[in-house]
Amino acid sequence: MGDPNQLSIFDVIKTIEEKSLNNERPGSLNLDVVIREELSLAIKECPQSRYWIAGRMAELTGCPISKEQLDSWTSESHVQHNFPLKHFVALIKATGSNNLLKIIVERAGYHLAEDECLLDQELGKIKRLKEDLAQREKAIMGYLKDKNRKRE
């Protein structure tokens, strides 16, 4: 394997998370501006119109959502209109953007694994299993050869 004194990726991540939790400043987790910016960006980058996005979100949530509501949730001047968490997943589905999810997860001190990353991890597991099985097969074959030589 590797150097036993070398930190694993999980140890590194844990260290980063511990540092980030200890360095939080008052107000540093007020995400109002970030949420408004990322909502705006998700809507802007979506090929569909704001009307379509609002309609799709309404369909997905079963709640009435208008284009005007989208506008108020993204407007810096409407600070009293916060984006409701209950519509969060519908926004991701309607716009196809998960950037806001990534930002929130990272601000909480975690990491979001993309599908490709998960598949790479699974391939790594498979490779390690194959190597382990090959070593076990080699050991068994060696044992059987030794045993057969002793019989002869």
Walk me through the structure:
It is built from seven helices and no strands. The protein has 152 residues and is an all-alpha fold. The chain folds into two domains: 76 residues; 40 residues. α3 packs across α5. The protein is elongated and about 90 Å long. The model has no long low-confidence stretch (mean pLDDT 83).
List the helices and strands and how they pair.
Elements (H helix, E strand, L loop, with lengths): L8 H14 L9 H14 L4 H12 L5 H8 L13 H8 L3 H9 L7 H37 L1
Helix pairs in contact: 3-5
The span between the termini is 37 Å
Given the helix and strand composition, which structural class is it? Answer: mainly alpha
Number of domains: 2
Largest sheet report: none
Q: Which regions are unreliable across 5 or more consecutive residues at pLDDT < 50? A: none
| Helix run count | 7
Features:
152 residues, 7 helices, 0% strand, elongated
Q: Quick summary of this structure?
A:
By secondary structure, this protein is mainly α.
